[in-house]
Amino acid sequence: MNLKELVTGVSGEKQFLLGNEAAVRGVIEAGVSIAATYPGTPSSEIGNVLSVLAKDANIYFEFSTNEKVAMEVAATAAASGLRSFTFMKHVGMNVAADSFMTTAYSGVNGGMVILSADDPSLFSSQNEQDTRNYARLSNVPILEPSNCQEVKDMVKYAFDLSEQFNIPVIVRTTTRVSHMRGVVEFGDIKDNSSNNDNHWKRGHFNKDPSKYVPVPAFAGDMHIRLWDKVHKIEEVSNKSDFNAEVNFTEDKKYGLIASSSAYNYAHDIVKFNNLNVNILKLGFSYPFPQEKVVEFLNDLDEVFIVEEVDPIIERDTLACIGANSLNVQVHGKLDGTFPLYHEFNSDIVADGLNKVFNFKDTESVEFSQSLEKLSEDIPSRAPVLCAGCPHRAMYYGINIAIDELGMKPEDVIFASDIGCYTLGINPPYNAADYLLSMGSSVGDGCGFSVSTDQKVASFIGDSTFFHSGVSPLINAVHNKHNFVLTVLDNRITAMTGGQPNPGIPVDGMGDEAPEVSIRKLALACGCDYVRVINPFNLDQVVKTYKEAFERNDTAVIISKAPCTLIKGLTKKPPVEFIEGNCNNCDKCVSALACPAISKVNGKITIDKSQCDGCNVCIQVCKYGALEAGR
Amino acid sequence: MDNQYSIYICGVGGQGIIKTSTIIGEAAMNQGLDVVMSEIHGMSQRGGSVSTELKIGGFNSSIIPKQGADMLLSFEPIETVRGLDKVNSETKIVYNTQPIIPSSTNKPYPSVDSITKTLKENFKHVLPVDGTQLAIEAGSVLSLNMVLLGAVTADDKFPLTKESVIEAMKNNLKPKFHEMNIKAIESGYKSIKG
C-alpha cells in the first residue's frame, strides 16, 4: 500500500493496515489539525507516517523534544479550539504526566486525544506499566482497542467524546495492537481545511483564567467540574457499543469480561472450543461501565476477567459485586487464574480457562532427544550494535582508557540511558551498570559522584540529551559533580527508527530547521571541558577519555558520527583481511563483537555485505591483518 | 474451518520478513478472506531474531498458539529451530538453508545438514530450500524473501493463489523490481512443486 492512501482513501475502502497506520487514518478522519509526539516503540510508526503525510492531511506535526512538550503542544491546540493528537509509549506518559494531569482539570475546547502504547512483555521497554492506571489517576476516559479497525474507529470516536465533555481522552494500545495488521474499512473524513497561509487551520484562544489557570482559587472548582464530567461520561460508557456482549450460549452460569488483545485470545478459545461462556467486551473501560457490568454479572455464578497487565477491570468488577451484593465468583489475576505480568497469548488464556472447563487436550507432544539437543545447542541471536556503529568504537575506547589509567572495571560506574547504546550492556563492552529512564544517566552521574569514590561514566544519545539531559547537566555543573558525560551524537533518533531531533537541521515535516548545538548547550550549562571527537579515531577516543577521567568536574565528550542506518550516507569500502598477517589472536572478533567479523572454520571472515568500512577493527589489530578496503 | 491457515514466519532482522508477511496479508484481503497478522518492531531489529505471525480465516487473535501453525517459513536455518514451538506433526516446515552466523556468541553454529537431518527425523514435511542461491539466480540476493514467498504458495493447503500474491507484491514493491521478484516467486514455487 502507498501511505498516501491513508489521506486519499474514501469511505468504504479497505486496506491491510498496521495498528499504528490505522491510528493515523483515525486522526485524519477526525480532522485533526495539530499532532505532536516524542518517538517511542510501540507507538513510533504513527509519527513516521504522520511525518510523511502531515502536509497532505492539513496537519501541523512535530517531533517534540519530549512527551511533556508534545502534551503541552496538544493541550494548547485543544484549548484554542483545534483538534489535537499526541501519542507516546507508556513510559512517555510519566514524562508528560505533570501537564497531562492539569489538562484533565482545565479541560479542552477542541477535541484532544492521547494515544499511549503499552508494552506488555517488554519487547522494547524498561517496564510493563499499565496506562489504564493513568485514566483512574486523572479521571480521564480511556478506550482500549483490540484490533486495527477498532484503533481507527476508537481514535476517531475519542475526538467526538472529548469535544462532547470538554475533556482529553486516552486511547490505550499495546504492542500487539499497535503492531498488529488487519483489514480496516475507512470512514468519512471531517473537513480540516486551512483558513490561512499555512497548510493547517488556526484556532483562537479565548482567555478564561478560571478555566485554564489552576491556581488554588480556581483548581478546586475544576476538580468538582471534573467529577461532574466523570459521572456523565459513565452514562455514555454504560451505553457504548464499544462495551458489548458477545454471546455464544444460552447458559448463564459462566461469563467472561475482557479487553484489548486479551479479548482476542479469549474470543478465539471460547469460539473454537465451544465453551459455554458469554463474553462482555470492554472497549470503553473508564469511567467503568458499572451498570452494564452488573447487568452482565446478574445471572452468572462465575466470571473470568481476562486483561493485560494490571488487574484493573478485575478490581472494578469486584467493587461492583461488593456494592450490589452479588454472589459471583471471580477468576482473574488476583486468584492466580491468569498471570499478573507479561503479555497474554492463546496458550496462557486457555490454561487459565482450563482450570474450570478442563477442555484442553493435556497430552503434550514431546520432542525426540535429538530435537531437544538441537534446540539447546543453537546459538542465541540477541540484538547487537550494527556493523559500523559509532557507539562500538566509544565503548571499546573508554575501556582501553580505563585500563591504561590503571583502573579496574569495578572502579568505574557506567550510567546508561535509553537508546541503541543500552546494548553496551553486553560483553565485551559491559558498559551499562545503572539505568532508570530517559535522561537519567546525567542525574545518576550527579548522585553516584557524591555517593561513592568510584568514577562515573554516563552515556546518553543526542535525542535523549535533548529530551531530558540538559536540566540535569545544569544541576551537575551548579552542584560541582564529578563525572564524565558522553553524548553519543549519531545525528538521529536511532532506536525508534530514525526520526529527526533538534540536533539536525530538519523538522518533523521534512522542512529545514535550526540545528541546536550540543556543544554550545554544554558550554552554556557551564561545563569547562567539552570535546567533540570522531569516534572512529581510536587514539583520539582513548586520549580524550584519559584527560576527562583525570578531571574533577563535569566533563562532556561529544562523539559525533552518523548512525550507519541513516539513508543516503556514502559507505566506505569494506575492510580487507590479509590472512598471512593474522596471528589468530581473535581480538577483532572478541573485543569488538562486530556482526561483520566472525571466525568461520578457523579463519577470520569479513561479511562484506555488512561491513561499513568504519575501520575501527584495523586500529584494533596489532598484526596488520586488516586493511582499509579500496 | 476450511480456508483457515496460520503461517509463522521467522528469520533475522533485515531479511524482508515483515514485507513478505504484509504481501501475504494484503493478498488474503484482496481474495476476500479475514486476515490478521502480528509483527515485532524496535530493539529486536538490531540483528536479532524477527518473527511474524499470520492467521487467515476468521480469527480475532493474531498470535498462533503452540503447535498451531500450518506453515513454518524460516529465512535462516537455526531460526527454524527457534520456531518449532509453533509446529505440529502436519506443519509444513520450509526454510532457507543459508546460515547467518550470529556475532558474539559462545555456541558454535551447527551444520545445516545436521539441522535438516534432525528435522526430518522428527517431522513429516521438512522442505529445505537453497533460497539464497535461487535469489541470486533471479537477479539479487535481496529477492530471497520473494523466493520464500513463492515456496509458501506451493503448499496445496495455502488458501491464496500465486497470482493474487504476485498482485499484492506489485502493490508493495517498486516497479523496477517486479520482473525480478516474479522470477524469484516462480523459482521458489518450483523448488517445492518440482
What does this structure look like?
The complex is a heterodimer of chains A (630) and B (194). With 630 residues, chain A is of the alpha/beta class. Helices cover 37% and strands 17% of the residues of chain A. Chain A contains 23 helices and 23 strands. In chain A, the strands form 6 sheets. Chain A has a 7-stranded mixed sheet, sandwiched between helices. In chain A, strands 9-11-10-13-14 form a 5-stranded mixed sheet, with helices on both faces. In chain A, helix 2 packs parallel to helix 7. Chain A is globular. Chain B is α/β, with parallel strands linked by helices. In chain B, 39% of the residues lie in helices and 18% in strands. Chain B has 7 helices and 6 strands, in the order βαβββαβαβαααα. Chain B has helices spanning 17-30, 77-82, 112-122, 131-138, 144-153, 162-172, 178-193, and strands at residues 5-12, 35-39, 49-56, 71-74, 92-96, 125-129. In chain B, strands 2-3-1-4-5-6 form a 6-stranded mixed sheet, sandwiched between helices. The longest helix of chain B has 16 residues, at 178-193. Chain B starts with a strand and ends with a helix. Classes of the chains: A alpha/beta (630), B alpha/beta (194). At the A-B interface, strand 1, strand 8, helix 11, helix 14 and helix 15 of A face helix 1, strand 2, helix 2 and helix 3 of B.
Largest sheet of chain A: 7 strands, mixed
The total count of strands of chain B amounts to 6
Q: Quote the beta fraction of chain A.
A: 15-25%
Number of contiguous helices of chain A: 23
Strand tally of chain A, please? 23
Key words describing this protein structure:
heterodimer, A: alpha/beta, seven-stranded mixed sheet, five-stranded mixed sheet, 23 strands, 37% helix, 17% strand, B: 194 residues, alpha/beta, six-stranded mixed sheet, 7 helices
Quickly describe the structure.
The complex is a heterodimer of chains A (630) and B (194). By secondary structure, chain A is an alpha/beta fold. Helix content of chain B is 39%, strand content 18%.
